[in-house]
C-alpha cells in the first residue's frame, strides 16, 4: 500500500448516489450525484459504466490510485449479479486488482445501525421502502423492498406518484384543484408542456420521475387536504411495513427501530412512527446518510 492510495465508499439509491473518498493521509471528501446507478434499473454494464464515470469525474488522473471501494447499492441483493457487476466495474475502471465489496443498501444500513451484530430493526424509506431486522440468533428477516411497481409503499416514489394521480383526477374534476394541484401543474408544464400524452410517455419511459414530486407534497401538507391525505397514507403504509416485520420477529429481536432514508427521517414521518413505536415499547432512532457513508469508507479501508 502506497501513500497515494485512494479508498472509496459508495451509497446508491434510486435518486441519489453518494461517494466518500479518502487518501491514505488526508481528510475524506464527499461527492453527491443526482443520479440513479442501480444495476436493477440500468443493467449491469450501464450501471458499472456510469459509476466508473462518476469516479473518474471525482478522481481525474488519480483514478489509477484507487485501491478499494465498498458499495452499498439499492437492489444489489443477488450474489451472482453482484459478481458480474464487480467484474464489469473493474473492466470499466481498467483496474483488475481493484478490491470491491458490494451489498444491498438495506443490509448495509442494518450493519451500520447495529455494527456489532446486535439485534434490531431498520426501516428504510427513500425513493423506495423496505424494513429489515436481525434477530438475536443472527437470522435476517425482511418485509417490503419489492420495487416501485410491486410495492415501495410510503416511499418518495409512491408519494410523488400519488401527487400525480391526484393531479390527473383533479384535472378530470373528480377532486378539488388545490395548492398541490397548482404546483404539480406548474412543474409538469415545465417538464412536459400541456400535452397529457407527453406526461404518460415521459412517465412510462422513465423521463419523468415521480419521486421528484414528493417534496411538493411535504411542502403543502399543512395547507392542502390532498397533500395532507397523501402524507397520512404514507405514514400508515410505512407503519404497516415496520409493524408487519415486528410481528414476525417480536419475540426474537431487540426492541430497537432505526429510521433511515430521506422520507423516513422527515420530521413529519419520523415523529408519527416514533410515537407508535413508543406505544409498542420500541426505542426509535435515526440513522444519517453520513453514518452510512462513513461505514462504507471504513469497510473499504479494511478490504
SSE layout:
Blueprint: E1 6-12, E2 17-23, E3 29-33, H1 39-42, H2 44-59, E4 66-73, H3 79-93, E5 99-104, H4 105-113, E6 120-125, E7 129-134, E8 140-144, H5 156-171, H6 179-192, H7 196-204, H8 214-219, H9 225-249, E9 256-260, H10 262-265, H11 267-279, E10 283-287, H12 289-302
Parallel strand pairs: 1-4, 4-5, 6-9, 9-10
Antiparallel strand pairs: 1-2, 2-3, 6-7, 7-8
Helix pairs in contact: 2-3, 4-12, 5-6, 5-9, 9-11
Could you please describe the fold and organization of this structure?
This protein has 303 residues and is α/β, with parallel strands linked by helices. It is 48% helix and 20% strand. It has 12 helices and 10 strands. A hairpin with a 5-residue loop joins strand 7 (129-134) and strand 8. Helix 2 crosses helix 3 and helix 5 crosses helix 6. The protein is globular and about 60 Å long.
Strand sequence of the main sheet, in spatial order? 3-2-1-4-5
How many angstroms separate the termini? 12 Å
CATH architecture of the domain at 6-108 and 291-302: 2-Layer Sandwich
The largest sheet is: 5 strands, mixed
Helix content: 40-55%
Q: From the helix content, strand content and strand pairing, which structural class follows?
A: alpha/beta
- Give the strand content: 15-25%
CATH topology of the domain at 6-108 and 291-302: Nucleotidyltransferase, domain 5
Count of alpha/pi helices: 12
Provide the CATH superfamily of the domain at 6-108 and 291-302. Answer: ATPase, nucleotide binding domain
Cα-atom radius of gyration = 20 Å
Q: Give me the strand/helix succession.
A: EEEHHEHEHEEEHHHHHEHHEH
> What general outline do the C-alpha atoms trace?
globular
Q: What is the CATH C level class of the domain at 6-108 and 291-302, in words?
A: Alpha Beta
Average pLDDT number: 91
How many beta strands in the DSSP annotation?
Answer: 10
Amino acid at each position: 500500500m502506497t501513500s497515494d492510495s485512494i479508498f472509496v465508499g459508495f451509497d446508491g439509491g434510486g435518486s441519489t448516489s453518494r461517494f466518500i473518498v479518502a487518501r491514505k493521509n488526508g481528510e475524506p471528501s464527499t461527492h453527491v450525484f443526482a443520479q440513479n446507478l442501480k444495476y436493477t434499473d440500468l443493467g449491469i454494464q450501464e450501471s458499472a459504466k456510469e459509476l466508473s464515470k462518476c469516479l473518474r469525474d471525482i478522481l481525474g488522473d488519480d483514478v489509477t490510485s484507487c485501491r478499494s471501494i465498498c458499495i452499498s447499492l439499492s437492489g444489489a441483493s443477488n450474489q451472482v449479479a453482484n459478481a458480474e457487476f464487480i467484474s464489469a466495474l473493474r473492466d470499466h475502471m481498467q483496474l483488475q486488482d481493484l478490491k470491491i465489496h458490494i451489498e444491498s443498501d438495506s443490509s448495509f444500513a442494518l450493519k451500520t445501525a447495529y455494527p456489532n451484530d446486535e439485534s434490531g430493526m431498520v426501516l428504510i424509506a427513500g425513493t423506495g421502502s423496505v424494513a429489515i431486522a436481525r434477530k438475536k440468533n443472527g437470522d435476517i428477516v425482511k418485509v417490503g423492498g419489492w420495487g416501485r411497481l410491486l410495492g415501495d409503499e410510503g416511499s418518495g416514489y409512491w408519494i410523488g406518484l400519488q401527487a400525480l394521480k391526484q393531479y390527473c383526477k383533479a384535472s378530470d374534476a373528480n377532486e378539488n384543484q388545490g395548492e398541490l394541484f397548482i404546483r404539480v401543474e406548474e412543474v409538469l408544464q415545465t417538464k412536459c408542456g400541456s400535452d397529457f400524452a407527453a406526461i404518460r410517455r415521459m412517465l412510462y419511459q422513465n423521463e419523468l420521475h415521480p419521486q421528484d414530486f414528493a417534496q411538493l407534497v411535504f411542502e403543502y401538507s399543512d395547507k392542502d387536504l390532498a397533500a395532507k391525505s397523501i402524507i397520512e397514507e404514507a405514514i400508515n403504509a410505512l407503519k404497516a411495513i415496520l409493524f408487519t416485520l415486528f410481528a414476525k420477529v417480536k419475540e426474537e429481536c431487540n426492541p430497537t427501530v432505526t429510521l433511515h432514508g430521506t422520507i423516513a427521517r422527515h420530521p413529519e414521518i419520523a415523529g408519527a412512527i416514533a410515537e407508535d413505536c413508543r406505544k409498542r415499547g420500541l426505542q426509535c432512532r435515526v440513522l444519517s446518510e453520513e453514518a452510512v457513508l462513513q461505514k462504507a469508507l471504513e469497510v473499504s479501508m479494511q478490504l
